[in-house]
Amino acid sequence: MYLNVNDYAHLSCDSDMIQAALDQAQKTGQAILIPKINQRTGKEIWDITKTLLLHSESSVLLQNCHLRLGDGAVCNMFANKNSKIPNAIEENDKQRHITIRGMGNVVLDGGIHNGMYEDNGISRKVMKKYPHHISENCMMYFRNVEHLLVENITIKNHRYWGICMYTTSYSRIANIHYESESNVPNQDGVDVCKGCHDVIVENITGCVGDNMIALLATEDVIYSKVVNNLSDGDIRNITIRNIMCYGVGGCALVRLLNHDGYKIYNIRIDNVIETSPWSDQDASVAQNPD
Questions:
Q1: pLDDT averages per 10-residue partition of the chain, 290 residues
Q2: What is the pLDDT of residue 226?
Q3: If residue 113 lies in a helix (H) or strand (E), which one and from where to where?
Q4: First to last CA, the chain
Q5: CB 249 within 8 A of CB 278
Q6: DSSP state of 287
Q7: How high is the pLDDT of residue 280?
Q8: 178 near 192, Cβ under 8 Å?
Q9: Which H or E run contains 28?
Q10: I need a labelling partner for 29 at 20 to 30 A (CA). Which of 65, 72, 182, 258 fits?
């Protein structure tokens, strides 16, 4: 049985409603349900103005619902709770068995961009104004998680990376559709970053503004400290398959990037198809010489 988020319609905002359900579910072991209709507002939309923090064994069922990041908000839509603490890199702070599952027509929407961008490893324009890190603009952000499952979701106009994982293992990202207008830079689809291993990314479709799938292990200053030892930052045992997509920013469908002594190995990539629509501006196809 699940907890319906509408049971908390007396609270002051949609984020508080959902977080209250998540916190109660941690005690009872139940899943939470976010339905189509928001009974607090009577609308078919949920405005997210604070990061929804997931506990170990959190299960979120999204049923034909539309979640939208609030205007001006600087936050992830979903993140594991311990990703926000200083000790997120420690084994004792590892979280396990987190599920986000869509049912029907589920949209996670970046809404109107908040003005925080990546530019050469720093946040452009807003770093002096807001004490925020660019990773807070990822739609979903996970650190030090085992057995993560995210599936059956459309991600629309995300503000930075759609799904970002650090030191995440034995996990699966599947059946994700992207709808990006390339309205901002660096709209990656799925980023599998330092320390990730034994992860499956499959059945990814649609359009993004940057790399659709990126495996990223580097010590660039934009990335927070996520491992204690160099070898812990290697990316390994990753399966990427059934990727049917295109990028409007001219970047890679699948990118593998490692620097600074980190390694990427045991990677299987299968069935990647570029699906950009035909345009009369496309280069002509070379004639068969026969």
A1: 96 98 98 99 98 98 99 97 80 94 98 79 47 89 97 97 97 97 85 96 96 90 68 93 90 92 96 87 48
A2: 74
A3: none
A4: 65
A5: no
A6: P
A7: 67
A8: no
A9: helix 14-28
A10: 65
Q: Residue for token digits 């946040």?
A: 123
| Amino acid (1-letter code) at residue 25 | A
What's the token pair of residue 173? 């990202």
SS3 content of the chain, % helix, strand, coil (to 5): 10, 45, 45
In angstroms, the Cα distances linking 13 to 22, 24, 40, 123, 238 are 15, 17, 8, 28, 39
pLDDT score at 223: 59
Pairwise CA distance, residues 214 & 221, whole Å: 18
Domains of the chain: which residue ranges?
2-274
Q: Which two tokens stand for residue 62?
A: 């999204």
CATH of domain 2-274: 2.160.20.10
The single residue listed with the structure tokens 């078919």 is 44
Tokens representing residue 65 in the block = 């619902």
Residue 170 CA to residue 196 CA, distance in Å, equals 9
Rounded-to-integer distance, Cα 132 and Cα 278, Å: 40
